[in-house]
């Protein structure tokens, strides 16, 4: 079992400045008892490839762990869907689902004049019916004999009488020209408007019997048409009752999938997804299937509850089996839709608002489209228009499909009718009924899933289509533009072309919008090496880092991790890669142990003893074991960075990338973290980016100074001896003393003023410089007569400044538009 001793702390910092890694050995000797492991190495099991489906189960398990502490969101989703569907059922009770035309008002009013209710109460002055020719009403027989009539001679008199007396006439009259057959009738048209139809019935009967007489079909008693009047039902009157339920149901359906966007959006925005994709989750298919599996549970639960409640409480629904299928499919598609929206939103809340808002708008459009069509469109065309609305809006939002299923289930708009006949059960799956929602949702799901995978593996897909051969260079190609003082860089490029380093960068080049940000960078990092990538702001460190991770595709060149190309085989290469990003990306609802459990599973460690042993070893090595069951969000900043390091290390990757490991951490914690990193570094190739020369000096045994190009590379001692070996600093109280110091130093060959202070000088003291340290002291003491001065070996910082100055590097200002940070897509 690996053990960390408490003596592995601050003093190692100084030792590592003058050493190339060997100092770690005594500290780490206790960490492993594996005879085959490198001396002092932390004993960890190598990760194994896992299928996307098996990784999906790990993401599913993670969601279950998170849900133990954060159960409100799924509960709310289920509650809103169930309550919004079931409580409004009260509006449905007692509705008849038959296809027969239903009259709201069953009262039938007789129109045959003698029976008509308008006649009897109206007896009195003005109630006589004008008739021409005289007594023509009497041809209708005894039933009409008691009607009061007024004889009119002809049509012309009839018209003039009406014109003059219409204010005094209660009913009107009838006039038929027996010669020509011209018929007139007049009626009083004030509401309730029954006089018109009554008079029409009277005229009809007279003309009918005249026609019978003329055709010789004379009957003993007149044939009478007893017409009746009943009001048409108001079209929406019956419909609106069901619409109340549909309105609540649709609103609940529109909103509940928005809850599915909350977790994935938080996971994405806090860079946890990127962390997973860089540390074991080799394929976004696993990520999204895992989330979908989890959220689908709630869709199945709510669909089942809703259908059971419907079946138990009312007989208003038809085809509940199909309805259940639609609800489940809708839940799945709604979740995928919410995931897709979360890709573009900046926070969980905005994702929620965007999903719910869009769905509500589409639901309103869909419902409004139906109602407007029924209200304003020609009756003969309304069916076609509704069908067009349905099939069009269903393409734009999944909520249209579930609305259609709801309409069908309660036979709204007679969708379950074929004329006046109810459709049979076999026709329920018809495209005009449950068929189209099921079809649309079945197509919608894979399309949305495809969008998710495309968005998250854009670089991988691009890589597939990329003709990488065209971008390759010969790996031994000399870098033509090296200047004389970059022989170290040229030598590194030559060496790495054929080395077997765990990490090899070969001629990496990247241009963004015409701006070359990484230019022909080559270096190698072998095992047991911590390589510090140094450079001013905007130098291309993060871009290089991301090309190593395989998240940015180089325009030219390649990266090899344990001999596997990141460009052509990213999934295999990433198996040997661990990434500790600049910004800590942790799940706030998981403990330290649970984090390592999830990442260990993603990296293919076997459940049980193997996983447990690796987790314990890592927690001890990073001093996190005392916080094992604490929520990661409750750790200090330094311990969160350590957790990120432990995540990067689980699965024992050969290459570990660490971006700005201790930025923003206090001095004590920083040294503690450096100690931790040194403890776990044995046997690995580690690349760190940092702006802290102190950190690089404390940790690195190889340094690369980069500003688009690699400007210098080598061990810290190499660089110091190459660029400036010693510094002389005079204490000069007066201006004369400053001048004296400068005159004295100008006599020493190769001496030059340092950048920062006018009394600090760099002096080359090395083999071939013609000057020894003893000679330097001799000159200073014999010719200077200075009260106080110091001679010290140059630091990495002075080398860095010198390299930057010599290459005329400008530091980039941090303009707000720059793309920064860990997450890329
Ligand atoms: N996706 C991108 N699109 C356009 N320009 C980009 C993109 N990513 C990085 N850059 C540009 O590339 C240059 C190098 O950026 P990079 O982040 O790699 O530098 P850096 O050395 O990591 O800087 P710092 O030390 O400030 O983190 C910058 O000018 C930056 O604006």
UniProtKB/TrEMBL annotation:
What PROSITE patterns is this protein classified in?
Answer: ABC_TRANSPORTER_1, ABC_TRANSPORTER_2
Membrane topology of the entry: Multi-pass membrane protein
* Gene3D superfamilies in the cross-refs: P-loop containing nucleotide triphosphate hydrolases (3.40.50.300)
Principal location: membrane
- Record flagged with keyword Transport: yes
Which residues does the UniProt record annotate as the domain ABC transporter?
Answer: 503-732
Domain of life, per lineage: Eukaryota
MF term (GO), any: ATP hydrolysis activity
Cellular component GO terms held in the UniProt record: membrane
Where does the protein end up?
Answer: Membrane
For the keyword Repeat, the answer is yes
Give the residue ranges for region: Disordered. 1-20
Q: Spell out the Pfam families in the cross-references.
A: ABC2_membrane_3 (PF12698), ABC_tran (PF00005)
Q: Where are the transmembrane segments?
A: 71-92, 245-264, 285-310, 322-345, 352-372, 384-417, 438-455
Assigned keywords, A-Z: ATP-binding, Membrane, Nucleotide-binding, Repeat, Transmembrane, Transmembrane helix, Transport
| Family listed | Belongs to the ABC transporter superfamily. ABCA family.
Q: Which PANTHER family match?
A: ATP-BINDING CASSETTE SUB-FAMILY A MEMBER 2 (PTHR19229:SF36), ATP-BINDING CASSETTE TRANSPORTER SUBFAMILY A ABCA (PTHR19229)
> What is the name attached to this protein's record?
ABC transporter domain-containing protein
Q: Which organism is it from?
A: Suillus luteus UH-Slu-Lm8-n1
């Amino acid at each position: 079992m690996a053990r960390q001793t408490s003596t592995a702390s601050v003093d190692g910092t100084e030792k590592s400045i003058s050493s190339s890694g060997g100092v770690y050995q005594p500290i780490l000797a206790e960490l492993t008892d594996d005879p085959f492991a490198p001396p002092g190495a932390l004993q960890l099991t190598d990760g194994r490839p896992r299928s996307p489906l098996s990784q999906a189960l790990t993401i599913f398990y993670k969601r279950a762990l998170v849900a133990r502490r954060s159960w409100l969101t799924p509960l709310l989703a289920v509650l809103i869907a169930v309550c919004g569907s079931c409580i409004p059922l009260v509006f449905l009770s007692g509705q008849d689902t038959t296809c027969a035309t239903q009259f709201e008002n069953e009262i039938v009013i007789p129109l045959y004049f003698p029976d008509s209710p308008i006649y009897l109460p109206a007896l009195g002055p003005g109630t006589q019916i004008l008739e021409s020719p005289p007594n023509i009403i009497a041809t209708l027989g005894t039933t009409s004999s008691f009607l009061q009539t007024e004889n009119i001679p002809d049509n012309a008199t009839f018209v003039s009488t009406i014109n003059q007396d219409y204010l005094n006439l209660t009913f009107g009259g009838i006039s038929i020209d027996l010669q020509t057959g011209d018929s007139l009738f007049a009626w009083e048209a004030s509401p309730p408007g029954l006089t018109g139809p009554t008079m029409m019935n009277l005229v009809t009967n007279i003309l009918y019997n005249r026609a019978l007489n003329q055709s010789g079909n004379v009957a003993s008693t007149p044939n009478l048409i007893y017409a009746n009047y009943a009001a048409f039902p108001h079209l929406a009157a019956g419909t609106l009752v069901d619409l109340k339920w549909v309105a609540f149901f649709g609103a609940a359906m529109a909103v509940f999938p928005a809850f599915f966007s909350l977790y994935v959006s938080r996971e994405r925005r806090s860079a946890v997804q990127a962390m997973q994709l860089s540390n074991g989750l080799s394929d976004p298919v696993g990520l999204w299937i895992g989330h979908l599996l989890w959220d689908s549970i709630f869709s199945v639960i709510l669909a089942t509850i809703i259908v059971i409640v419907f079946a138990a409480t009312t007989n208003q629904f038809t085809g509940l089996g199909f309805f259940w299928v639609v609800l489940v499919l809708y839940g799945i598609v709604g979740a995928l839709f919410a995931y897709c929206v979360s890709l573009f939103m900046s926070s969980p809340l905005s994702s929620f608002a965007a999903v719910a808002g869009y769905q509500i708008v589409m639901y309103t459009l869909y419902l409004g489209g139906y109602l407007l069509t029924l209200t304003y469109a020609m009756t003969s065309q309304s069916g076609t228009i509704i069908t067009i609305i349905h099939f069009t809006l269903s393409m734009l939002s999944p909520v249209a499909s579930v609305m259609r299923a709801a309409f069908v289930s309660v036979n709204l708009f007679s969708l379950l009718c074929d004329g006046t006949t109810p459709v049979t059960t076999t026709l329920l799956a018809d495209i005009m009924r449950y068929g189209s929602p099921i079809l649309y949702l079945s197509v919608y799901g894979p399309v949305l899933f495809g969008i998710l995978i495309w968005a998250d593996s854009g670089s991988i897909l691009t890589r597939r289509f990329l003709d990488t051969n065209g971008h390759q260079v010969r790996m031994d190609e000399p870098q033509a533009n090296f200047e004389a003082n970059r022989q170290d860089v040229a030598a590194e490029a030559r060496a790495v072309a054929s080395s077997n380093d765990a990490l090899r960068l070969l001629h990496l080049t990247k241009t963004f919008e015409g701006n070359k940000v990484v230019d022909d960078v080559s270096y190698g990092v072998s095992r047991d090496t911590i390589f510090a990538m140094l450079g001013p702001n905007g130098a291309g460190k993060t871009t290089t880092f991301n090309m190593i991770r395989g998240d940015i595709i180089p325009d030219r060149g390649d990266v090899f991790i344990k001999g596997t190309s990141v460009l052509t085989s990213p999934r295999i290469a990433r198996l040997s890669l661990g990434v500790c990003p600049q910004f800590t990306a942790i799940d706030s609802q998981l403990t330290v142990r649970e984090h390592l459990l999830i990442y260990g599973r993603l990296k293919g460690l076997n459940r049980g003893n193997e996983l447990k042993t690796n987790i314990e070893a890592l927690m001890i090595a990073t001093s996190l074991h005392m916080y094992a069951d604490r929520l990661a969000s409750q750790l200090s900043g330094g311990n969160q960075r350590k957790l990120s390091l432990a995540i990067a290390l689980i699965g024992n990757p050969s290459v570990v990338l660490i971006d700005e490991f201790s930025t923003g951490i206090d001095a004590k914690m920083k040294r503690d973290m450096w100690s931790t990193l040194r403890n776990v570094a044995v046997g690995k190739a580690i690349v760190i980016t940092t702006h802290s020369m102190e950190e690089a000096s404390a940790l690195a045994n190889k340094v690369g100074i980069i500003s688009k190009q690699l400007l210098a590379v080598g061990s810290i001692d190499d660089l110091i001896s190459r660029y400036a070996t010693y510094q002389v600093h005079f204490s000069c109280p007066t201006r004369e003393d400053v001048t004296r110091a400068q005159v004295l130093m100008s006599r020493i060959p190769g001496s030059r003023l340092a950048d920062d202070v006018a009394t600090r000088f760099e002096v080359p003291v090395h083999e071939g410089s013609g000057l020894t340290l003893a000679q330097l002291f001799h000159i200073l003491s014999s010719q200077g007569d200075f009260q106080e001065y110091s001679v010290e070996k140059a630091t990495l910082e002075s080398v860095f400044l010198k390299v930057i100055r010599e290459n005329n590097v400008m530091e980039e200002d941090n303009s707000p538009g720059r793309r920064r940070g860990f997450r890329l897509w």
